[in-house]
Each structure stands twice: as C-alpha cells, then as structure tokens.
Amino acid sequence: MRADGTTPKVNRDSTERVISHVRDLIARGELHPGDRLPAERDLSARLGVSRPTIRAGLRALAAMGVVKPRHGSGTYIPEGPPTLVTEPLRFLAALHGLTREEMYEARRVLEVSAAGLAAERASAEHVAAIAEEVASLFASIGDPVQFLVHDIRFHRAVAAACGNPIIASLVEMVAALYYEQRRETAARATDRNLRDAADLHRGIYLAIRKRDADHAKALMNRHLLHSAAYQAEEERPHPLPAGRRKPARKGRGGRVAPARSRD
To answer: In 3D, which of 193, 173, 175, 191 has the Cα closest to residue 183?
Structure first.
C-alpha cells in the first residue's frame, strides 16, 4: 500500500512472469517438493517487478496447489502428491447436484485401480502409513466423526502408495468433496457399520502388504459399495422411538394449543 492509502496496480503480464519463473525453476530441477522459494525481495529483484506483483503471482500459484505459504517462514513447494484445486468440482456439485451414486462410482473408478497399484508399488514407508490409519480407525470406532477423518486419510495413504501422482491428486480432490458431503451424516453411523468398515480397511491393508493386487482391488470395491449403502442408511429419515410423541403445538403467547379433533 502506498503512503496515500492506495494499492499499487498489479500488471497481469507481470504476474504471469512470476508464475512462469516458478514453473521454469521446477522444470529445471532447481525446486523440489519441500523446498523453500526465494524470498519476495529476491524474486522482485530477479524479475524486475514489484513486491505486490510477486505476492499476486504467489497467491495464484497457491490457488493452483503449486506452492504453500507458511506464516513467518516463507513459501514452499508442497511435499506429497500435487494438490488439485477442488473449487471446480464444488461448483459442479452445486450446479448439478452430484448424487451419492455418482460420487461412489467415481471413487470406484479411481480407488480400486489405486489399491491394485499400491499392492504392486508401495514402499515400506507407504505400508507403514496405511497401517497407522487402520489402527486409528479401530481406535476411533466410538467417535464417528473422527472415524471419518481417518477413513479419508486411509484412502489418501493408499492413493499416495500407488506411485502415480495424477491418480493420487484426483483421489485427493474427490476425497475433499466426499468429506464435505459425508460429515453432515457421519454422526449417525452405527457401531456395527463402523466395525465392518474398519475390518474391510484392514483387509485392504493386508492385501497391499502381501502384494496381492487382485485381492486389494476386490476388497476396495467391496468397501466402497458397502460405504455407499451405509451412507444411504445414514441419510434415511429415522422414525421417532416408540412411545415418543411430537412436541405439543404452541399457540399465541406460548400456550399449548388444544389438540385438533379429527371428526
């Protein structure tokens, strides 16, 4: 901001130069996952553009998932699979009302194959990460919302183990939308459904550990079909327990109105 209180205008072409420069650094192998980008002042001097232009370019890169700012530390290339922006998928869901069936169909297309690849390619570190989430699932059976968090993390861990960053990124994007959709009803999950789901997750993990790709794919497919059925059950309106009556209708002034005769 200038001394007169106005904000300097950011040139779009200059912003594109910032984006292209970072892309070139990555392409030349000068920046790797986990690396810190040069400071804003250094980028400004190197590219001959203003600091606000540098910030605008970094914000655009952050929106694309290419960089991640850390408060008080700088801007970094994220580690792990690249993150795809989920906003287009959220808009698609809002505009067209993506159904539960469509969501799980997309997950089966992506995650069944990912489980098979993970069985073939997972490193010891990947297998350990999947095992950790399985243990957390069993530990959180009494807390359906926390169980959902570890469920999502399990599927991310399997996708990361598949060895294909494109598949891992797509799973990550769909998982974010799935979490938003499922968290509204997750608290209604029954103990039996959660235990069944935890058992299937453990079976997928064991198949991956044994390098049994066909079994891992079959179990992942079964798990997602069961999960779709569980969510449908959670979304179904539940009748009031026997003997429980609806609250009496109140009239004006907060007094209970007499029941209407059906005669």
So the answer is: 175
When the candidates are 1.10.10.10, 3.10.450.350, 3.40.50.720, 1.10.287.3240, the CATH number that belongs to 12-76 is 1.10.10.10
Question: Which DSSP string do the residues of 34-100 spell out, in sequence order?
Answer: TPBPPPHHHHHHHHT--HHHHHHHHHHHHHTTS-EEETTTEEEPPSSSPPPP-HHHHHHHHHH---H
More confident residue, 227 or 180: 227
Residues 115, 217 contacting (CB under 8 angstroms): yes
Residue range 47-62, pLDDT digits in tens:
999 999 999 889 888 8
| The length of the chain, given as a count of residues | 263
- What is the spatial distance between Cα 38 and Cα 205, in angstroms, rounded to a whole number? 40
- Distance (Å, whole) CA 168 – CA 82: 8
- The domain covering 87-234 belongs, at the CATH homologous superfamily level, to GntR ligand-binding domain-like (1.20.120.530)
The pLDDT of residue 226 is 92
Strand partners, 250: 256
Start-to-end CA distance of the chain, whole Å, equals: 75
Token representation of residue 10: 């950011």
- Tell which residue, 135, 136, 118, has the closest CA to residue 127: 118
